[in-house]
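Worked problem 6 (solution included).
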Amino acid sequence: MDTEEKRSPEKQGFVDMLAKSLYGRSQTSARSKSVCVMCGKPLTPFRDELSVREYAISGMCQTCQDGVFDESDNDEPDPELSKDSGDV
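Solution. The predicted structure is:
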């Protein structure tokens, strides 16, 4: 199971810079320590292959993925987004 996204050095440098500014650690550093780039906690087993693939892209652990991709409240459209702004 491959848990690393294949990127050019330039793209990985950008991802690392962005992660460091957002989370205080680069994706490369987090991966080398087997911790989540977002929360910094040690990695735990992933639920499924899709979660493993997401880790390869984002570096997020299962818990952080669950928080980011929580679909429990996505059944209804966001009323704030569907309000008529009056700007036509």
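Discussion: DSSP finds five helices and no strands in the chain.
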